[in-house]
Amino acid sequence: MEYQAWFQCIGECGEKHRLDEVVYKCNSCGGLLEVRHDIKMLKQQKPYYWMKLFDDRYLRTEWPYGSGVWGKKEIVCPVVDNDNVVSLYEGGTNLFWAERLGSEIGLEDLWIKQCGNSHSGSFKDLGMTVLVSMVKQIRVTGNWIPAVACASTGDTSASLAAYCSAASIPAIVFLPKNKVSSSQLVQPIANGALTISLDTDFDGCMKIVQEVCAKNNIYLANSMNSLRIEGQKTVGIEIVQQFDWEIPDVVIIPGGNLGNVTALGKGFLLMKELGIVNNLPRIVCAQSARANPLYQSYLTGFKEYHPIKAKKTIASAIQIGNPVSINKAINIMKKFDGIVEQATEDELANAAARADRTGLFCCPHTGVALAALFKLIEGKEIGPKERVVVISTADGLKFPDFKIKYHEKKLKGVESRYANLPVEVPAKYDIVRDTIFKILDKQLP
User: Fold this and answer.
1) Are 401 and 181 in contact (CB under 8 A)?
2) Would you list the DSSP string of 374-439?
3) Which domains does the chain have, with CATH numbers?
4) What is the largest CA-CA distance in the chain?
5) Pick from 109, 110, 119: which is nearest to 68 by CA?
6) Does the pTM exceed 0.70?
7) Are 154 and 257 in contact (CB under 8 A)?
8) Residue pLDDT, tens place only, 398-430
9) How far apart are CA 176 and CA 413, in angstroms?
10) How buried is 426 (Cβ within 10 angstroms: 0-12 exposed, 13-18 middle, 19+ buried)?
11) Pairing of strands 95-97, 339-343
């Protein structure tokens, strides 16, 4: 079948555009666009058809369907030709049963979705494969786009640079000066992206990149481009697939620009509409207490929203005070009986370190989500028998400074309760043995 999808305004005007048009907002009312699918055509197939099709393709080698995203092409971006797909076989990431951590906090069924186990080390790959594939198709059909650009605090720039280099498309990334870890900065540099460091924060970079793109026909790759959302929505679908098509009770996700929580909800809603699932999980969006505009809106029952000036936070990727996808995210949170929780610097750093002690290696943003989980369990808003999935958005290896400073007790405002530094001893057997057993004896129950 020729499945169809298009851009459509999320507002009342419902203005439509083709997916190969360079457009990010409604021309009539200025509202954000979202990708809509021909649901009537998709529903001509029974739910079992889609489940079997996706399972048969999952992590196999037939191009491009082995990708966790493109294995669901019909409900993601059916209008891209397979020859124009730019894929690094993203998705298919581990759903880890965090049995030890769960037992410590009184939760029997805790899972961590390891989105950082991806090509560039973060969930951003899920959306970037769709966006860059569309840009390639636009260029192949003769509509010239000189480059693709994004504002970023690290992960988006790394993903954009990787996919553009694979597609031989120039990439431009705008980063806030001195606010990105060296591990994140080196990724776009290594992949050949034009990297521009601006003396501002993420919101300032976002303002500049939108102007540069609008005036120079450069394609915008930030999450206000809803093609990204289509790829990112597969994380929810994949979680359900990994549970043999059963819905978890609660999904917790860190939120900054709020495209990811929007995408998560959209994936669940699509599965329900197609009859693949019958119910929906609760969604929890976790924010840093220093960058918490959605949390502040949640306290008003989402009746009010005010952008804020985000303060510096260890969770740098979500240090965003004026999220582009705020309206979409609020709509999702309302539909999913959503909860918004916040985490202080001390809470998020210690949550990440505590999880690391159980075999994980968490980025600070995952620490935000875990801290929210701990607080909701303590407040009895999550029960001990519920199946909970925490989405880990990036690989902890991207944040060595965070890890080192935590264990050296050098993070401002953080009491490092799980610090673990090397023990320096002379190279003499007796001293080494005595030191080892002295420490082990203290650790015995």
Assistant:
1) yes
2) HHHHHTTSS-TTSEEEEEE-BBGGG-HHHHHHHHTT-STT---TT--PPPP--S-HHHHHHHHHHH
3) 95-121+228-407 (3.40.50.1100)
4) 79
5) 119
6) yes
7) no
8) 999 999 999 999 999 999 999 999 999 999 999
9) 23
10) exposed
11) unpaired
